[in-house]
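Project outcomes to date are best conveyed with an example. Our students and postdoctoral researchers have been running inverse folding experiments weekly, and each run begins with a structure described purely in tokens. The record below, which covers 600 residues, was selected by the lab manager from last quarter's runs and is presented without edits.
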């Protein structure tokens, strides 16, 4: 080879190619030392990859980015496995740490983008942003003297995050103020609580909202239940809300289950290819209460560790599970270190809850011919028995003991939320109302709602109903089949009659719009805790949970298998599989991941 040419190769390319050859060479030694055909294939293909990578970097017409190319190759390779096996480069370690610990350095607020500006959407109570005086609805103009107009959310988040005990200057535009306001905010180590709220729904029924399974989740649930019992001696039941909880650390799922079940009880077993890693995890601590009637709420977004807890409670007949069939993630991930401070999360095992069942719903090992992933076939689904002899099944999440329908919202509400009109009106409402009643009792009057409708005049929130979409499809099909000309007048007449009237829709769907309006308004005064309390009156699962906890014969008949729910809602739609994994069983759906990136 011409050595002058080699000298002209950029240093970063030579280093990357050398590293690849070292890796391939090491694998070659290992392969021949093992004498295994599988290792030979690994060595051969690594050598091919290294030589291809070298040729591309040396001869490609334009400059390439070695790190980006290798990451793309790694991601494509892992995509063939499952969505939970992921490469974590050094640059993403901080986000990974937040997903497992719930901690980061920042100001303690959620942000959202609207147009050219990033807005504070939710300052966390008693965190730096709220203590400094920042409010939901504030539009960020500058961070440390640099304009953030037109910047993306991720860029602004990076500017707001930082080392605890350092200051950040934030200039904002606030409704009702003609001049910008500037705040000096001292960053802190922010810990996102796994239990953002616990309290009493009424005089006798307690409620614990669990949104994550990061470090200390078990302690937070334990402390919540201890507090509820200590301050409410007449408590007769507890609702543990796991809806849309994407999961978390396996050990925290065990600790949370242990709050309600006896020490020494088997909670979950893990089994994988490396048999030495197979293990059965038991409850190690003294429980808080093994007798108090318990309801666990689940939804299609309840995954992984949430399913260990709800499945354990169901398998041991310790409480009643209410909601919709859970996500169906029975895979456990382990994080392994790589060179240069990178890491890889690998699916290493499946977990099995006390009855012996695995609730994994999708079969990533046996993909369809087109590469898509299918559900575990009915022929392979097996029946298991709970402690009391009730029949439960594997292969598809935790099926609730009492099913509730998925709550669906109108197109007009979705449009009002997406276009931030409910968010903006809450900001305006607070300007004219210095205080409101407590969150549990706050209601928008009919006159208040009329004011909201009036405020919407002239604002853009158009939307297309499903009926209109179907009509448009009918027209396209009819035109393609040459039938439309003969029915065009009748078609237009039908369309005119069905065209939505936005103002009438505002009153037709008044109930659900008020639900969101009240929640957003309450959050301006009482933050996240108030928003949760304001939702109680609209919550179907909570209503059913309270009803069953008060109805002891029904509660007991469910746990003994004698109860049959009249007219249970049918299963509805497929689950969204767009999610990522994390250590020891965490599964984070895309909305959770989005919220994580918007934390500051």
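After processing, the design step wrote out the following sequence:
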């Amino acid at each position: 080879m011409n050595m002058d040419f080699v000298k002209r190769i950029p240093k970063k390319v030579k280093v990357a190619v050398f590293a690849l050859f070292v890796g391939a060479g090491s694998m070659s030694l290992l392969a021949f030392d093992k004498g295994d055909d599988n290792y030979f294939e690994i060595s051969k293909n690594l050598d091919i990859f290294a030589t291809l990578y070298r040729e591309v970097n040396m001869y490609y017409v334009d400059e390439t980015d070695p790190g980006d190319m290798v990451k793309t190759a790694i991601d494509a390779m892992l995509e063939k496995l499952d969505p939970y096996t992921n490469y974590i480069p050094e640059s993403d370690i901080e986000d990974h740490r937040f997903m497992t610990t719930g901690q980061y350095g920042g100001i303690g607020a959620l942000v959202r983008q609207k147009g050219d500006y990033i807005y504070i959407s939710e300052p966390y109570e008693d965190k730096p942003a709220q203590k400094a005086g920042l409010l939901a609805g504030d539009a960020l103009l500058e961070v440390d003297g640099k304009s953030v107009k037109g910047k993306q959310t991720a860029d602004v988040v990076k500017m707001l995050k930082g080392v605890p005990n350092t200051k950040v200057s934030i200039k904002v535009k606030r409704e009702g103020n003609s001049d910008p306001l500037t705040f000096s905010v001292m960053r802190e180590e922010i810990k996102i609580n796994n239990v953002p709220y616990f309290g009493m729904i009424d005089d006798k029924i307690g409620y614990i909202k669990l949104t994550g399974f990061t470090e200390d989740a078990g302690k937070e649930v334990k402390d919540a239940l201890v507090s509820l019992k200590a301050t409410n001696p007449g408590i007769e039941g507890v609702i543990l809300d796991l809806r849309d909880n994407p999961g978390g650390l396996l050990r925290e799922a065990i600790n949370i289950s242990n709050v309600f079940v006896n020490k020494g009880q088997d909670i979950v077993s893990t089994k994988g290819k490396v048999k030495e890693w197979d293990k059965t995890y038991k409850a190690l601590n003294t429980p808080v209460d093994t007798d108090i009637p318990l309801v666990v709420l689940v939804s299609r977004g309840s995954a992984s560790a949430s399913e260990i807890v709800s499945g354990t409670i169901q398998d041991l007949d310790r409480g009643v599970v209410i909601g919709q069939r859970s996500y169906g993630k029975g895979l456990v991930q382990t994080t392994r270190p790589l060179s240069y401070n990178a890491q890889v999360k690998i699916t290493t095992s499946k977990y099995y809850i006390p009855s012996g069942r695995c609730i994994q719903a999708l079969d990533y090992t046996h993909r369809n011919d087109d590469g898509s992933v299918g559900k575990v076939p009915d022929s392979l689904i097996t029946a298991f028995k709970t402690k009391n002899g009730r029949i439960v099944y594997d292969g598809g999440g935790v099926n609730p003991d009492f099913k509730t329908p998925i709550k669906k919202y109108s197109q007009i509400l979705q449009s009002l939320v997406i276009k931030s009109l409910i968010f903006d009106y809450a900001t305006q409402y607070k300007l004219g109302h210095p205080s409101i009643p407590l969150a549990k009792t706050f209601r928008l009057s009919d006159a208040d709602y009329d004011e909201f409708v009036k405020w919407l005049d002239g604002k853009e929130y158009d939307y297309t109903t499903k009926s209109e979409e179907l009509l448009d499809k009918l027209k396209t099909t009819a035109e393609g089949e040459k039938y439309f000309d003969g029915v065009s007048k009748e078609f237009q007449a039908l369309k005119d009659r069905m065209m939505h009237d936005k103002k009438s829709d505002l009153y037709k769907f008044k109930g659900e719009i008020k639900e969101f309006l009240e929640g957003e308004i309450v959050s301006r005064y009482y933050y996240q805790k108030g928003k949760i309390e304001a939702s109680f009156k609209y919550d179907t699962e909570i209503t059913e949970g309270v009803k069953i906890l008060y109805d002891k014969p029904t509660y007991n008949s469910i746990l003994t298998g004698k109860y049959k729910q009249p007219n249970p809602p049918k299963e509805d739609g497929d689950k969204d599989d767009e999610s990522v994994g994390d250590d020891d069983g965490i599964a984070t759906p895309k909305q959770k991941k989005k919220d994580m990136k918007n934390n500051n």
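Residues 556 and 562 are 9 Å apart (CA to CA). Residues 1-35, 573-594 have pLDDT under 50 and may be disordered. The training component of this project remains on track.
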